[in-house]
Structure to design on (844 residues):
């Protein structure tokens, strides 16, 4: 199968404004160090790591919310590493993103219908209202929710709106950045089941960023483990859980509190 | 159970907000009507002088004349009629100066806060430099150069106060710009300016409305101050500030000449600020 | 003999009929770790706040009793109640970032409790603070006491909060989601540290969390809450082996286990929610008429 994404020797550094001297420019901190991997079409890739591991930065570089400082990001064979916003615009329909905090990623002053419709209108889709309804149906929200504001919904419902907005454009790729970390277990289970179904139904490729290996195991076919901006392990999910190679991966696995009182921590 | 009782706590907060909102909107509504209808409802000609009718007390006091409800000043001009005509000037200044200040200041603030980069550098520097001028001195200087008059007052207010909007709106736009829905608009392929107008503006609008109503109150006060020091429009035209200045000289003989315009001014400025507070809560979809 | 005993505690949103807690009863023995679990809005952290007397101003207690070390807290005058609570109980807060004052050094923030509540001389309090920081495995306590919060990592800050919670030797500590903001690897260290400190000092612990995995590691008993009502109160072992309440079973089925990838995740079914809400409604009616 062809690779949808190909990331080669990716570097990304940002200026560290807390250490900026009075005169002159701030020193740069390296957030991603030489990250390379391929993401085949149709795969669900888990990206896991602690805070400061660079997992969110990697995701944002893939959908070009951030511009890498070195290396290459190829999407569908096309080099998008340094494309400017105007050149990216036609491509943006094809890679979408679902955000961690649905409260801050949904504009509080727009109704759900507007939120889902806005990207459709931007990309010149003809039958916008029909597509909004279809997207709501897909994520299992009642159609009359189109008239509601985000604050009138529960956390799980808001995250469904985020998913509906992303899939309405019929993208090839979706980046999901910690999308269940703020949810209760029940909503988390609902959102994960929904996402899994949608990936199959719509033939999506998915990158799923999470700090929670239990969730990754449930959903993903392959896992990247990031530690301080570098990939320490890239393995098929089953292999990773059966025989973790990197010391950091083992540490992560050991630290998961299994819901079982007989499994005591070492 | 849980679904319907969730609104209980909020509706109580809203009722109190509502009362303040209605009282201040009510007062301002009365004032607007008074200003519009002044030629028909004013009992006397506000400019007509009659020294025989000088310093008449309000009607409920001994020695009052019928038709002069709130008494007359030392030149025999009817206080109520002058307050009604004065409302015209006060409201024109509030509306025109307030809106212009808001338009200019908020636009610059929005651009600086959201577009950042060199736009922000230029606008922020301008704000810093502007705010280093002492405002009262600045306004008097401006009017001294341009000459007294309605246009001068309005220009003075705009020139001095746009920074008030620019600063606050810039900070608010910066905070909103860090939210994920802005990133999400970018993922959707929306351009920068379009994002600013559709995503950021609706979220800073409540702040702008509050600032606008406050600014209208400030404009009324500034106009009164400038009239008080005789830098407003011609002294014959009735202005609240001018009336207060005149009333000050005869406070011991005729308190009503000072007190009635003062109370009107006070209530008007208070109403503007309370209206701003009330509207802010109304605008918030979370509280609504 | 239970150290903390809550009987029939009910609370509502002030001035409304909206219930926050419904007839909550629970007991925690001296030295026991009791978990309060439930989804967001279940009222679990409100119980902890009620015990510590730090309920938000918008919440009022309508009935019930809280007995701490044999003292009926709610019958005491407010000043006396604050003094009693300050001397016997402490809090480990959720967010280590906002729980420390960013503009003060660590040292005084830890010693304040000792000086203000127990009236210790400052020199003695500082010695004790150094001991405590060493006890929570902070390398170089001397340097950390002179640091500002922003100079330390999240895990380090949480250690300091744990040290300062244990500083005045409280008999009861309320831990309100103490590891939610931390990475799993740091979470493990912190949970082990809390367990270690708790065992050494023999402190009773009221542990508020939404994470059943965490409960299984640190608690001996737990109460499962929904809509401000206790659904099930049992030992941790029984809860995971044979959960008695339908809601408990549903909650367990929705929790992912990485050891068992084949197991499908089942969201709490609507039928279970309906049954739970019917149970709560029936209970509310019986309170009103009984």
């Amino acid at each position: 199968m062809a690779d949808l994404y190909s990331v080669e020797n990716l570097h990304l550094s940002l200026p560290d404004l807390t250490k900026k001297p009075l005169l002159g420019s701030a020193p740069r901190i390296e957030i991603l160090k030489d990250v390379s991997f391929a993401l085949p079409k149709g795969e669900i890739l888990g990206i896991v790591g602690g805070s400061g591991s660079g997992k969110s930065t990697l995701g944002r570089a893939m959908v070009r919310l951030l511009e890498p400082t070195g290396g290459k990001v190829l999407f569908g064979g096309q080099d998008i590493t340094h494309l400017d916003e105007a050149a990216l615009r036609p491509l943006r329909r094809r890679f979408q993103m679902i955000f961690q905090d649905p409260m801050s990623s949904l504009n509080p002053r727009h109704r759900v219908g507007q939120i889902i419709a806005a990207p459709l209108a931007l990309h010149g889709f003809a039958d916008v209202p029909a597509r909004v309804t279809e997207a709501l149906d897909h994520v299992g929200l009642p159609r009359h929710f189109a008239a509601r504001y985000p604050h009138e919904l529960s956390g799980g419902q808001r995250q469904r709106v985020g998913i509906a907005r992303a899939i309405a454009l019929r993208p090839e790729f979706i980046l999901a950045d910690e999308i269940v970390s703020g949810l209760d277990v029940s909503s988390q289970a609902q959102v994960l089941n929904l996402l899994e179904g949608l990936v199959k139904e719509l033939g999506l490729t998915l990158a799923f960023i999470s700090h929670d290996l239990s969730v990754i195991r449930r959903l993903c076919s392959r896992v990247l483990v990031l530690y301080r901006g570098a990939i320490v392990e890239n393995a098929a999910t089953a292999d990773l859980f059966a025989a973790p190679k990197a010391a950091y991966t083992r540490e992560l696995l050991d630290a998961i509190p299994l819901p079982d009182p007989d499994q005591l921590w070492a | 159970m849980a679904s319907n009782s969730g609104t209980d706590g909020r509706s109580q907060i809203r009722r109190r907000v509502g009362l303040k909102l209605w009282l201040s909107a009510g007062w301002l509504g009365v004032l607007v009507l008074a200003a519009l209808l002044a030629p028909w409802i004013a009992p006397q000609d506000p400019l007509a002088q009659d020294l025989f009718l000088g310093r008449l007390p309000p009607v409920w006091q001994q020695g009052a004349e019928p038709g002069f409800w709130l008494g007359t000043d030392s030149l025999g001009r009817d206080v109520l009629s002058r307050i009604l005509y004065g409302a015209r000037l006060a409201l024109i200044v509030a509306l025109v100066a307030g809106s212009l200040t808001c338009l200019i200041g908020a636009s610059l603030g929005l651009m600086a806060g959201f577009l950042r980069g060199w736009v922000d550098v230029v606008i922020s520097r301008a704000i810093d430099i502007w705010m280093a001028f002492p405002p009262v001195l600045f306004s008097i200087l401006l009017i001294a150069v341009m000459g007294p008059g309605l246009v001068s007052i309005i220009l003075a207010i705009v020139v001095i106060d746009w920074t008030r909007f620019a600063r606050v709106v810039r900070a608010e736009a910066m905070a909103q710009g860090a939210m994920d829905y802005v990133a999400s608009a970018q993922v959707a392929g929306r351009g920068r300016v379009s994002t600013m107008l559709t995503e950021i503006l609706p979220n800073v609008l409540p702040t702008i409305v509050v600032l606008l109503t406050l600014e209208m109150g400030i404009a009324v006060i500034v106009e009164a101050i400038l009239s008080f020091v005789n830098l407003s429009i011609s002294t014959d035209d009735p202005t609240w500030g001018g009336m207060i200045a005149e009333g000050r000289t005869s406070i011991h003989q005729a308190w009503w000449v000072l007190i009635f315009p003062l109370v009107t001014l006070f209530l008007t400025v208070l109403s503007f600020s309370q209206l701003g507070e009330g509207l802010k809560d109304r605008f918030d979809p979370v509280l609504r | 003999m239970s150290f903390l005993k809550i009987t029939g505690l009910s609370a509502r949103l002030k001035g409304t009929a909206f219930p926050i807690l419904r007839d909550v009863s629970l007991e925690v023995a001296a030295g026991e770790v009791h978990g309060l679990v439930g989804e967001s809005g279940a009222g679990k952290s409100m119980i902890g706040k009620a015990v510590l007397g730090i309920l938000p101003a918008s919440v009022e207690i309508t009935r019930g009793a809280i007995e701490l070390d044999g003292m009926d807290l709610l019958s005491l005058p407010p000043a006396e109640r604050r003094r009693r609570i300050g001397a016997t109980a402490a809090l480990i807060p959720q967010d280590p970032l906002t729980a420390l004052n960013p503009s003060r050094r660590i040292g005084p923030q830890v010693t304040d409790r000792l000086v203000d509540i127990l009236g210790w001389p400052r020199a003695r309090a500082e010695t004790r603070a150094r001991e405590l920081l060493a006890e929570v495995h902070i390398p170089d306590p001397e340097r950390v006491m002179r640091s500002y919060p922003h100079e330390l990592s999240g895990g380090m800050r949480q250690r300091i909060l744990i040290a300062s919670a244990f500083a005045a030797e409280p008999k009861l500590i309320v831990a309100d989601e103490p590891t939610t903001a931390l990475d799993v690897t740091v979470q493990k260290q912190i949970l082990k540290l809390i367990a270690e400190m708790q065992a050494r000092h023999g402190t009773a612990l009221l542990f508020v969390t939404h994470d059943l995995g965490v409960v299984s590691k640190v608690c001996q008993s737990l109460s499962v809450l929904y809509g401000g009502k206790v659904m099930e109160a049992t030992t941790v072992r029984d809860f995971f082996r044979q959960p008695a309440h339908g809601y408990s079973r549903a909650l367990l089925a929705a929790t992912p286990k990485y050891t068992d990838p084949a197991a499908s995740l089942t969201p709490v079914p609507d039928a279970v929610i309906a049954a739970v809400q019917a149970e709560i409604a029936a209970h509310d009616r019986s309170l009103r008429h009984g």
About this structure: Chain B has one domain: 24-283. The mean pLDDT of chain B is 84. DSSP finds ten helices and no strands in chain B.
